[in-house]
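Q: I'm building a small set of examples for a reading group on sequence design. Run inverse folding on the following structure and report the sequence directly after it, with nothing in between.
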């Protein structure tokens, strides 16, 4: 389930960059960032080789492009998971801390980027569920930022936002509000993968 959710998220963010990347970045830079994002998507289910390839493409850009830094940082958090799986706790914690630092720096450098906010919101949830990191406060911040701008989001992106808002609210033990978020997710984009996941959550909590 988590792997499918991660693939959904990566696909949405890649499409978002494709839509505006060349308007805001040089064509070559946008293309390299998109390649890095694609390796990121692959690394979520097949980390061997894909983490390193993604890092190699993004590394030359992290000093000038916050989006590249954000995805590089997220790749480092995926690398932390590999270290943990291999039993190297020290390396795992070091990579986890570095990845979170880079992702937070990226958001600080481009605080108005909805792409970075989506990336960090989702990354924070995944890390909070699967690692010692507690990033729910960061997740809440990004949800708030995106909610304030939901009118400018495409329906699929707004649906994704409400899905993760629901996930957060479940963790915050605000079940009634969580169910409202899941229902809104379905309403906004009924045929989307986000809606399919929200429907499962609604069924789970049916009385």
């Amino acid at each position: 389930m988590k792997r499918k959710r991660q693939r959904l998220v990566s696909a949405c963010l890649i499409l978002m960059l494709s839509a505006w990347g060349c308007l805001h970045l040089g064509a070559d830079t946008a293309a390299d960032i998109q390649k890095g994002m694609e390796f990121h998507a692959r690394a979520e289910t097949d980390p061997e080789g894909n983490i390193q390839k993604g890092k190699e493409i993004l590394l030359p850009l992290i000093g000038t492009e916050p989006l590249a830094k954000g995805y590089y940082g997220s790749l480092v958090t995926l690398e932390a998971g590999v270290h943990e799986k291999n039993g190297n706790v020290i390396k795992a914690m070091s990579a986890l801390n570095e990845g979170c630092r880079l992702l937070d720096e990226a958001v600080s450098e481009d605080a108005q980027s909805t792409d970075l906010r989506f990336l960090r919101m989702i990354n924070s949830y995944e890390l909070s569920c699967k690692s010692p990191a507690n990033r729910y406060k960061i997740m809440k911040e990004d949800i708030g930022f995106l909610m304030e701008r939901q009118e400018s989001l495409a329906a699929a992106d707004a649906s994704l936002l409400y899905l993760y808002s629901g996930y957060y609210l479940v963790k915050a033990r605000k079940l009634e509000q969580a169910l409202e978020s899941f229902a809104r997710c379905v309403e906004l984009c009924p045929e989307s993968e986000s809606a399919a996941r929200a429907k499962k959550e609604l069924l789970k909590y049916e009385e």
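Confidence is low (pLDDT under 50) at residues 1-7, 17-23.
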